[in-house]
Amino acid sequence: MRGGWEGHAPVEATELFIPFLEKHGFEVHRADSPAPYADAEFMSGVDLIVQCYTMGTIEQAELSGLEAAIRAGTGMAGWHGGIADSYRNSSDYLHLIGGQFACHPGKDPAERAGSQADNFVPYTVNMLPVDHPITAGIADFDLVTEQYWVLSDAYVDVLATTTQKVRPWDPWHREVTSPAIWTRQWGDGRIFVATPGHSVDVLQDDNVRTIVERGLLWASR
Q1: Percent of the chain predicted with pLDDT > 90
Q2: How far is CA 190 from CA 29, 75, 129, 186, 193, in A?
Q3: Is 161 left (phi over 0), alpha (psi -120 to 50) or beta?
Q4: Coil, strand or helix: which one is 131?
Q5: CA angle in degrees (0–180, nearest 5) for 28-30-33
Q6: How far apart are CA 50 and CA 136, in angstroms?
Q7: How far apart are CA 156 and CA 153, in angstroms?
Q8: Rounded distance, CA 93 to CA 125, Å?
Q9: Do you know which InterPro entries this protein is assigned to (predicted)?
Q10: How many other β-carbons are positioned within 10 Å of the β-carbon of residue 140?
Q11: CA end-to-end span of the chain, whole Å?
């Protein structure tokens, strides 16, 4: 399910993973709005939702259908704003996912030129010492892209973090560590979220792509 803000290239980003899913036996249905979430009959046969839908809105019937499907065993997975910055009109969606984009602190204001690249900074994804098939064998790695500051709750199972440093132009006074990769159990369903993935080139990073692909399979019914 893809759409919303075009800056995250929802079509190109999801097409990157569709051959992988088909190789693993999935029959892929494409949607450009959350409307199918309200179709209980359709959703009962869905093993995995891959959502790349930044911002936008969701209707109550769509959200109720999404939550009911996940509770019944449908998996949900996504990356970056396509799952962690969707449907700002719904606190219930935030509760379902467990973590919400708050900010991506950017470069020194003196270096900004008014483009998306103003928010591209070097940072490290720090893997936690947990035994999980999504992150097994992957060491800490570095990226230059948006670093998500995430608001989350204690019911997320964090697999990796990233730490926002304190820089001379920032108003905060201590480092802030946010989840960068997490899972969440919801009823009989599984949810997977990775915050890296602003653009196709980030998703093509060997570490990011491996984590996302593993996360898709882990979350599926």
Answers
A1: 100
A2: 20, 5, 21, 6, 10
A3: beta
A4: coil
A5: 145
A6: 22
A7: 6
A8: 25
A9: Class_I_gatase-like (IPR029062), ThuA-like (IPR029010)
A10: 11
A11: 17
Which residue's entry shows tokens 């709005």?
A: 33
What b/e readout covers 193-218, taking b as 16+ CB neighbours within 10 angstroms? Answer: bbbbbbbeebbebebbbebbbbbbbb
Q: Which two tokens stand for residue 121?
A: 């900074």
Residue-wise pLDDT for 98-125, tens only, equals: 999 999 999 999 999 999 999 999 999 9
What does the H/E/C string look like for 57-99? CCCHHHHHHHHHHHHCCCEEEEECHHHHCECCCCHHHHHHHCE
- Specify the pLDDT at position 146: 98
For residue 171, how many other CB atoms are within 10 A of its CB?
Answer: 6
What is the model's pLDDT at position 124? 98
